[in-house]
Amino acid sequence: MRAKAKRYPKEAARLLRERPSVREAVTGATLHFERNRLRAYGEIDTEAWRERARRVKDHVLTHLDHYLELAEGRLRENGVQVHWAEGPEEAHRLLREVVARHGVRRAVKAKSMLTEELGVNPLLESLGVEVYETDLGEYLIQLLGEPPSHIVGPAIHLTLKEIQELFHGRFGTPPDAPPEALAQVARRVLREAFLTAELGISGANFLVAETGTLALMENEGNIRLSTSLPKVHVAFVGIEKLLPRLQDLALFLPLTARAATGQRLSTFVSLLQGPAREGEEGPEEVHVVLVDHGRTALLADPEAWEVLRCLRCGACLNACPVYRQTGGHPYGYVYSGPIGAVLDPGLLGLEEAYPLPYASTLCGACQEACPVKIPIPRLLLTWRHRAVEEGLAPAWERGAIGAFARVMGSPALYRLLSKALRGLPLPQELQVYLPVLKAWAEGRGPLRPSPRPFHELWKEIKEEARGG
Amino acid sequence: MRVALFITCLADQFYAEAGVAAVRLLRALGVEVDFPEDQTCCGQPAFNAGHWGEARALAKRSLEVFREAEYVVLPSGSCASMVRNHYPELLPGDQGALALSEKTYELSQFLVRVLGVEKLGEGLRGRRVAYHHGCHALRELGVKAEPLLLLQNAGAELLPWEAAEECCGFGGLFSVKLPEVSLSMADRKLATLPKAEVLTSTDAGCLLHLAGRMAKLGQGVRVAPLATLLWEAYAGQG
């Protein structure tokens, strides 16, 4: 996917202006998820679970070469064909081969953020393959030609009315058809796709190294069908998705479900161990593509690597009051919200993702929600610091901060500013403040300072105590 | 016991009476109060925006200004967190930063945890109060129970507020860099505000932002810093 992260401030403003329904839909849905998460976290010793999960992930990430080799060996023993992809090119090459070898005309696909990164759909379409997203939300946005707005709920930004209109135009359903009727239509289309597709594509929530097991979580059953009915299954797995042992799933599956949707466990969990053997049903051929796409470099970054613990549960998006205003589209890349703000600079480079670390008030709600305790506010500060070091901060900001530092570095200048705020003309040196003050006042009315600042009042009350 | 007040620039300029309230309150509780007059700003705006060089210079100033203090108390959760949590990161290996960090408290935190005061008086009897948890007070400093306890014990009726722990959208430079998102967040916060007589919080920044937005929208709720209300709790003023 081409990143448009640089446009974040403009796109966020535009969306708030032009599509107010998005704010309403996203706020409603995220608050719902958030309440569910809080209830689900409340049932367990959350701190102990999160700490355990953090340690397991840190262990895997700090011994990643070992676990990747182990996983590769086990996968091959299970009859899986293993591939390594540095980036989209290798992933595309493999898909081209599969499509050509099996004469693939139709593919069914489970929702996967990594395949969004790799641009799997456009590639397949360019090869003349019909692609069906089979997660209902993902199917909706595919019909609309939009990217996902949320890591877990891709169509979270849509209202029922918009979906009704979409289906009315596409399938001729009544303009006020109830959700059940719309789901029926989607089910009919997707069933047909499942039964006729030669290729099934998925991501993976986890890959267990010791057994070569792919673990997939879902609520709709579409992943099960995508990975069992077509004769070929290709799974794209980010190298950070590894877990050491099968027993780790006992922690990570319920923790992820609780964090993501407040469920104790997702409705379906598939543990896949390679192609069907004699007498079994399932795909004849299974490919696992281990994808780097910037992750190794990020892992080597001592100040930013912790973001790779991410389970893609979306809990930080649901908790984030900034994300709630706009949903994911203005962030301009696959990963939005707080996690996007610290992951995208690592994957795309800071120059490409510059405004994203500033898409936060540092309120810390994201860190509180994160099931693997990623210190998102600290990572935001790190990326901001680097942005400034690399000269990416806009000129007005550098000017304003420079003036701020000069004023605050000198009590005399600070007292001058204090007088200026109360009506005296602002000296030349401080006029860089004016645009900032003006911008602030636009949405909030003029700033009204106290009649006298405290440091003047102090001179009067200093002696008060002695007086009585 | 002697306390050096770090009044913070926003409170100094926009909520000066909160500073006076803090002085009177602390004195009433038997604490000697200093106001080192060379103080300016803790440097948080620069730090949060990534300009660590500028922030470091201001942090070093604060180290000098408050070097001799026994305790440093701020009527601001986010500035208190800047000193307590971020000064040691910003000045690694600096013993002065560590020392200042350890003796720095937000006002209500100081009253409850250091002075052991849980009740100031009953001056807020029957007052309907909405409390906004400033994010840094809440999540960085862990100040949650203290202000509520002091308000409640003074007789205030604390109104349930769905969005009480949600960020108001101020975020320092955030409010200027992403003004539309910032205002949208304030609107969400205010849309859920219960029918209160007074809206309060530890942080001048949040209050300025919310009060400004209310003024713009024509909502007329009194906005007062926590320090002001705590003094009213003690002195019984209306």
TrEMBL record, chain A:
Keyword Cell cycle listed: no
Record keywords, A-Z: 4Fe-4S, Electron transport, Iron, Iron-sulfur, Metal-binding, Repeat, Transport
Matches recorded under InterPro entries: 4Fe4S_Fe-S-bd (IPR017896), 4Fe4S_Fe_S_CS (IPR017900), FTHF_cligase-like_sf (IPR024185), Helical_ferredxn (IPR009051), LUD_dom (IPR003741), LutB/LldF (IPR004452), LutB_C (IPR024569), NagB/RpiA_transferase-like (IPR037171)
Organism domain of life: Bacteria
Record's keyword annotation contains Calcium: no
GO molecular function, one term: metal ion binding
A Pfam family: LUD_dom
PROSITE patterns cross-referenced by the UniProt entry: 4FE4S_FER_1, 4FE4S_FER_2
Domain 4Fe-4S ferredoxin-type, first and last residues per copy: 301-322
GO biological process, one term: lactate metabolic process
Protein name according to UniProt: Iron-sulfur cluster-binding protein
From TrEMBL, chain B:
InterPro entries: Cys_rich_dom
MF GO annotations: oxidoreductase activity
GO cellular component, one term: cytosol
Any single Pfam family the record assigns to this protein: CCG
Domain of life of the source: Bacteria
Transmembrane parts of this sequence: none
Record domain Cysteine-rich: where: 3-83, 129-210
PANTHER family in the record: LACTATE UTILIZATION PROTEIN A (PTHR30296:SF0), UNCHARACTERIZED PROTEIN YKGE (PTHR30296)
Protein name: (Fe-S)-binding protein
High-level lineage: Bacteria, Thermotogati, Deinococcota, Deinococci, Thermales
